[in-house]
Structure formats: structure tokens, C-alpha cells
Amino acid sequence: MPAPTVQLAIANLVIYITLTPPTIYTLYRHGKFGILGWGYLVAFCMLRLIGGGLEIGDSGSRTASIISGVGLSPLLLAVLGVLHESSHHISGKRPFLLGIWFYLGLHGLIAIALGLLISGMKHSSNGSSTAGKVGTVIYLLMWIMIVGLCALSFTHPKEGREAKMLLYGVALCLPFLGVRTIYTVIGTFDRSVSAYTGPIALRAVLASLMEYIVAIDLIIFGILTRKIRQASVRSDKHGIPLQQNTSRKPVARWRR
Q1: What is the spatial distance between Cα 139 and Cα 113, in angstroms, rounded to a whole number?
Q2: What angle do CA 76, 173, 166 make, to 5 degrees?
Q3: Helix boundaries (H) for the chain
Q4: b (16+ CB within 10 A) / e for 18-57
Q5: Backbone phi and psi for residue 158, each to the nearest 5 degrees, phi listed first
Q6: How far apart are CA 105 and CA 209, in angstroms?
Q7: Which phi and psi angles does 90 have, rounded to 5°?
Q8: I need a surface site. Which of 11, 157, 190, 252 has the fewest CB within 10 A?
């Protein structure tokens, strides 16, 4: 019988092979406004497939540990991107905190955290170096900010039912994403419960299972809102709905 680590890697392969096609379909249906969210979710699935394959081949591989360790970054970015897609359909002018430039700034911070975590894992397989600890703390701060932005988005009316539904999908997955993020932070400071080299039971429940739930939640709500582009009123670059004048007024003409 394969080792528990290999069994978990096989389970990851089966799950993400199943989830990848509907994720790609959702990316296609949501179009350009959903590319930040669904594109990163596709990247997350790809990383989990690659990491699972490497762990099956060599469970002690440093490369496999690094790939498994960086998987939280695209998952955070996916949730953040889906939240941005929902916020794009806010009626009227969007606040700065829900605009594209603030979201891109958060993407940059997550990229910095990713770089620190990779640097830390090069020196320690569980990322427990100083750089790795700083990187995971940034992850936690990002999760807290996503929760705040989600709450802020609820205070602004949306154009269409699909945009509201997408926001509910993000809110539903945030507790599970929080458990996954907090587990990573604790495991970085306490090697005995590391999310990469700790007990397999904790890794299966607090890491893999939480990721499954977040990914499946996003995919379900993504498919349910696959017509969001057609159902919502198009907005201009400032977030102000473009009003179409459907009434035809008679035009007075001067007659000689």
C-alpha cells in the first residue's frame, strides 16, 4: 500500500483532474472581467496537479514541497479576482477600495509574499525561515483584507442577480480559506504541525480539504453565474452604468 503522503497526492490528482475542466469552462464563460479570478483558479488546479505528480514520483522532493507550498497564492488571488468581478457590476461609481488599481496592489503584495515563501522554503522544507514566516503573515493579512473588501462590497447594490450570487459565493468560501491560511501560518512557526511536512491527518483536513471546498464553491457559483455578462448592465471605465435611451422623442423640423 502506498505511503500516506502518496495516498494524499493521488487524492489531489483525482480531485483536480476532475475540477480542471469545469474551471476552464467557467473562465471561458465569464470573459475578460473574470480572467483575474478564474485564470488564477485554473493556475491553482495546474499547480496541484503538478505537485501531486511530483510527490507520487518522489515524496521527499524539495521541488514538490515548493510547488505544494506556493499553491495558496493562486487560491488567494482567485478569490480576490472573483470578488473583483462581482464588484465590477456595482451600480454607480465604485469606491477606490473596490477598484482595479487597489486590487492590482493587493496582487503585488501577494506576489511579494510568494517570493518570500519560496526563498524561505529553499532554506527549510517547511518554510520556517524568517522570510517564510514573513510571507505567510502577509498571506494572513491578505485574507483579512479580502474579508473586509467582501463586507464592503455587500454595502453597494449590484447590477443583476448574478453579481450578487457571485459575491455570496465568495463570502461562503472565506471561512474555509481562512482556516487554510491560518494553518499555514501556524505551521510555519511550529514545525511539528507544518502544512508541508507535518502530520498527514492535519494536512489532509486543514490544507487539502479546505482547498477542495474553496475550489468547488467557486466553481459552483461560477457556473451558476456563467451568464453574468449578458445579465448585467455594462459599465464604463469609471464604474458608471451606461444608460441606454430607449425612448424616442419626436424631433422638431423647421419647414419652409
Answers
A1: 7
A2: 90
A3: 4-30, 35-57, 62-69, 72-88, 100-123, 130-154, 161-189, 200-202, 210-224, 228-231
A4: ebbebbeebbebbeebbebbbbbbbbbbebbbbbbebbbe
A5: -110, 160
A6: 29
A7: -70, 135
A8: 252
**Nine-digit cell at 100?**
482595479
Q: What is the pTM of this model?
A: 0.85
User: Rounded distance, CA 142 to CA 107, Å?
Assistant: 9
Beta carbons of 23 and 45 less than 8 angstroms apart = yes
Q: Mean pLDDT, 10 residues at a time, over the chain (256 residues)? A: 83 95 95 90 94 79 74 93 90 83 90 86 69 90 96 88 93 97 90 82 93 97 88 46 39 42
Please name the residue that has the C-alpha cell 477606490.
96
Query: How many Cβ atoms sit within 10 Å of the Cβ of residue 116?
Result: 22
Please list, in sequence order, all residues whose beta carbon lies within 8 angstroms of the beta carbon of residue 201, skipping any fewer than 6 positions away. none
Q: Letter for the amino acid at 130?
A: T
Residue 31's closest CA among 234, 241, 237?
Answer: 234
What angle, rounded to 10 degrees, do the helices at 72-88 and 161-189 form? Answer: 160
Which three cell numbers, joined as nine digits, stand for 123?
532554506
Beta-carbon contacts of 139 under 8 Å, excluding residues fewer than 6 positions away, are 72, 73, 76, 110, 113, 117, 181, 184, 185
